[in-house]
Amino acid sequence: MLPKGLLVVDPQGQEFLLVPEERVAATGYTLSVLQLHDGHWIRLQPQSSRRLRESMLGALLEFFGNLCRILNHSSDRAHRIKSVTPKSARPSSADTLASTQLR
Question: Which domain holds residue 75?
């Protein structure tokens, strides 16, 4: 899979796409904002998309924060599972029976 950009939906249901694009006139990349309008993606002018772009980056940071919390939680659970004594080191039912009969 290849990411094409960050899709964000505003509270009114309007869809926006934040995409990295290589600049033609200068070296480097820029972040462009596209808006879905009648089934087509329309590029917004940089001046009008600046505040929207900042909001979208905030949404991206929030997404990654949530992703880190989920992965950290999964990692904690995996660590707890790994810390359980391996079955081969646990006393078998025969060992338990023998130790109770010796008493």
Answer: 6-80
